[in-house]
Amino acid sequence: MSMRSLLLCGMSVSAATSCHAQIVEEDFDSIRLFTLRNASGIEVRITNYGAIITSIRTPDRDGELADIALGYTRVEDYINAVDKPYFGAVVGRYGNRIAGGQFTLDGESYELARNNGENHLHGGVIGFDKVVWAAEPLPESNALRLTYRAKDLEEGYPGNLDLEVVYRLTDKDELVVSYRATTDKATPVNVTQHTYFNLRGEGDGTILGHELMLNADGYTPVDEGLIPQGKIAPVTGTPFDFRTSKSIGKDIGTENEQLQFGGGYDHNWVLNREGDTASLVLAARVYEPESGRAMEIRTTEPGIQFYSGNFLDGRLFGKSGKSYVHRGGFCLETQHFPDSPNQPHFPSTILRPGELYESTTVLRFFTQ
User: Can you say how many angstroms the Cα of residue 325 is from the centroid of all Cα atoms in its chain?
Assistant: First the structure.
């Protein structure tokens, strides 16, 4: 840490006035950028501001590298971005929406910020995406560990929550994202990763030609505020059927109330899984035909939110200097279901003292 002392002389009515005041100046820059790189040349860059993935560089079928994650080169741009798109961030304490910004737990009512119309979204006004995390590189496993303590009643949530996120890049071309958390008071926890992808390269047109498969027979329909209606509906015969790979744009313009509510896809799919509920299951596979880039996602979570970049409108300019156009990126957020604290028949998101919250998502990059 650099430190130096400066003498400060103020304005004086007499030139003979002496000055003995002292200012101590030291390095106050706690925000860092870390790069993970594997044997294949895949590169992932992460900052401890918001635990944000700022860049993912992967090769196309000809070996040409491109950055497939939307984002910025300066931390100021993340802080000051209009519409707060959550590019690349870890979001929580509760990712996705909680109806009316409120819930009741063990007989007590809790009020949260209503930062998405009448609802609470992604942890509130200052969620995990807008704080500085402690960071520890783990060179022996090509990983970065990030930790943060969310204090009791921070953004309205009960309990001191100690959260750890580890990003690990393997030589199998997998980015492993692991979460662990403990609390000293019962609290809802639903943490997810909010990277926007464009497998053509960030800023390179829309994602409508990407071919997507979602391993889900059902999804949770929403109301106009994008809050689940409380049921799981079959995808059969609807635009939400991605069990067989199809282009994202194939049915996105279909006249459908659910698509109208979301302005496109912005829904939670209920993943197919058998047996152990904590095991990794295939959640999604995406392929971009022009570049040949592909990505597969496995997770221990019960759901995945597919968001088709409906609110991108060209006002945001990313790392390449190109604008992020409407549907210029997609998100696949592994998660528990939205509004679970108010929907007791959904899988529980309540973490209690003495319990350990654990969640893992694996993204594998490849070409075909």
Answer: 20
Residue 296 catalytic? Answer: no
Are 94 and 103 spatial neighbours (Cβ–Cβ below 8 Å)?
no
Does the annotation place 192 within a ligand binding site? no
Return the DSSP state at 69. Answer: B
Instruction: Give DSSP secondary structure letters for 266-286.
Output: EEEEEE---S-TTS-EEEEEE
Q: Which of 154, 210, 333, 336 is catalytic?
A: 333
C-beta of residue 248 within 8 angstroms of C-beta of residue 330 = yes
Give the 3-state secondary structure of residue 257: helix
pLDDT digits (tens, 9 = 90+) for 151-191: 999 999 999 999 999 999 999 999 999 999 999 999 999 99
Alpha helices in the chain (DSSP H): 75-80, 257-262
Long-range Cβ pairs for the range 101-110 (8 Å, 24+):
101/156, 103/188, 103/341, 103/342, 105/158, 105/186, 105/187, 105/188, 105/341, 105/350, 106/186, 108/158, 110/156, 110/157, 110/158
* Whether the Cβ atoms of residue 69 and residue 196 lie closer than 8 Å to each other: yes
- The length of the chain is 368
Query: Which sign, positive or negative, has the C-alpha torsion 362, 52, 43, 268?
Result: positive
Q: Is 182 annotated as a binding residue?
A: no
Q: pLDDT tens digits for 19-56?
A: 456 666 555 568 999 999 999 999 999 999 999 999 99
Residue 75 CA, chain-centre distance (Å), reads 16
Rounded-to-integer distance, Cα 294 and Cα 50, Å: 26
Q: What is d(CA 304, CA 306) in angstroms, rounded to the nearest whole number?
A: 6
Query: Which of 194, 210, 267, 336 is labelled catalytic?
Result: 194
- Report the half-sphere exposure of 351 (CA within 13 A, side-chain side): 26
Name which of 265, 342, 272 is nearest 305 in CA terms: 265
266 is in an annotated binding site: yes
The verdict on whether 136 is a catalytic residue reads: no
Q: Domains along the chain?
A: 33-367 (2.70.98.10)
194 belongs to an annotated ligand binding site: yes
User: Model-level pTM?
Assistant: 0.91
